[in-house]
């Protein structure tokens, strides 16, 4: 059965398309554009889920929301492909980064977006927020110093989940080649054929 992806431009849902391509699961895309004034999702998404947020998928009569929950759902549907590795330490890292992406990494990035839009009013918060994000980026760069992927030696859905916050960090969080391991990881995920196919499926994406 074909999975329907409700895809909002320049959003977390790009990861869902990428994961579907990596897992070779059949899907179709319904695209939504942001409101050009507010940059929020359009009200049409509320017809799919009351919160009106993307990503959302529909499969076998159910609607699944939240990127991490969708990732776990798709990995299970693909019989565990790209799921937790057999090694316990790697499996623990997999689960950590699968949820760290949204739970720990995205909050300071969203806060930086908000304070930047506040102009002078947001200036006092910029330095502490950047310091918080720098701690995350320094730690992530160190984590990748001794292994190629976030969970371990193998590419997993945890890498898919980590893509959006790292891409946003490159775009507006100061990530550059001063953190070479993290930048190398970013360049390698962008070179994956499935990533390229997902870009074609989703349309314009500002952070690749």
UniProtKB/TrEMBL annotation:
Its EC number is 2.5.1.18. It comes from the Bacteria. The keyword Metal-binding does not apply. It catalyses: RX + glutathione = an S-substituted glutathione + a halide anion + H(+). This is glutathione transferase. It holds the Pfam family GST_C_2. It comes from Edaphosphingomonas haloaromaticamans. CDD domains: GST_C_GTT1_like, GST_N_GTT1_like. GO terms for cellular component: cytoplasm. Residues 1-82 form the GST N-terminal domain. InterPro entries: Glutathione-S-Trfase_C-like (IPR010987), Glutathione-S-Trfase_C_sf (IPR036282), Glutathione_S-Trfase (IPR040079), Glutathione_S-Trfase_N (IPR004045), Thioredoxin-like_sf (IPR036249).
């Amino acid at each position: 059965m074909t999975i329907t992806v409700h895809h909002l431009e320049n959003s977390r849902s790009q990861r869902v398309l990428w994961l579907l391509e990596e897992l070779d699961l059949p899907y179709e895309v319904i695209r939504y554009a942001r409101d050009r004034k507010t940059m929020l999702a359009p009200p049409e998404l509320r017809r799919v889920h009351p919160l009106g947020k993307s990503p959302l998928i529909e499969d076998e009569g159910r609607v699944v929301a939240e990127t991490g929950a969708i990732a776990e759902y798709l990995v299970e549907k693909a019989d565990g492909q790209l799921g937790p590795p057999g090694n316990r330490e790697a499996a623990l890292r997999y689960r950590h980064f699968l949820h760290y992406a949204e739970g720990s990494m995205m909050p300071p990035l969203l806060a930086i977006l908000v304070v930047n839009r506040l102009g002078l009013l947001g200036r006092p918060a910029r330095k502490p927020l950047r310091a918080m994000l720098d701690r995350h980026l320094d730690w992530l760069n160190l984590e990748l110093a001794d292994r190629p992927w976030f969970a371990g030696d193998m590419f997993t859905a945890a890498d898919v989940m980590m893509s959006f916050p790292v891409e946003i960090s490159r775009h507006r969080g100061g990530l550059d080649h001063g953190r070479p391991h993290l930048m190398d990881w970013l360049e390698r995920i962008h070179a994956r054929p499935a990533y390229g196919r997902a870009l074609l499926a989703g349309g314009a994406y500002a952070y690749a």
